[in-house]
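pinning this so it doesn't scroll away 📌
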Amino acid sequence: MKKLLMITLAVCVVFGMTAVAQEMGKSCDMGKGKMAASAPLKTLKGTVKAEGDKVTFVDDADQKSWDVMNPEKLKAHDGHHVQVSAHVYADKNSIHVMSVKMRVPAGISGGLRRSGGLACACGLGAGRGWRGVGCPRA
């Protein structure tokens, strides 16, 4: 009889711990939902500026400068004109970049054509096949 009572008690403890763990997981998920709601995903076009470890993004629309929360995403695009998809934290004046697309400035797009080679010494077109007059980075 004692053995049956101990087994029943052990099963109750295990189920109780499982229920508590599931409830804690739900409360963590709710916090993420609030965070995502406060930082909407937006598409921005602008220029990347890197100074040491700090990377900023200057928006074309209003010339506002945003601090980048994950600088490793934009570090290789220093000085480039890009389009980013990012969560915008207006209260912190920062963005969290989700994706990056290169944009060719309007003034030199006529001098470029698609081909299989690299663009220039900066390697801007590596894998994309940009080739032609001038460096799109300039």
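📌 and the second one:
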Amino acid sequence: MTDKCQLSDLLPNLPIFRRFFTNLPRSAAEVSVKQATVLFTDIECVTKTIVKVIHGPRLNTSSLTAEMLQNVIPDIISTDSAKVITAKEEVVKLCQDWLSDNFEELDWVRIKDLQLRNILDSRRQAAQEASERKCLACPNFLKHVRFHT
């Protein structure tokens, strides 16, 4: 992955657009891990996939179910390089394909706040309209997006 902005970064996180996204890492060597502060306004999508990062001796998996262990990534912030590589390999497993269920947006059905419901409904309608556009079939779609931004 790269810190440079890609043209596909301008696209919304909708299944129909994900095929245009920059390729995901295919090996642990391509995964970069760093602690960062993300502003709330910079969050585009909250996925239904939860990844737990556990470090050091606190990792006691004996009381965890198989489902709870599914997305646990231990030692990603370890000083032991072998453990970090293993943890990065777990990240690569989660990031196999943009079209996987791991990138599906969280289901907001439990949100009852009327103002937020209206925003979510407007987003859903805009997403539906965008997904039905014929321009998505164009092989030069990303180039055309560049011309209009």
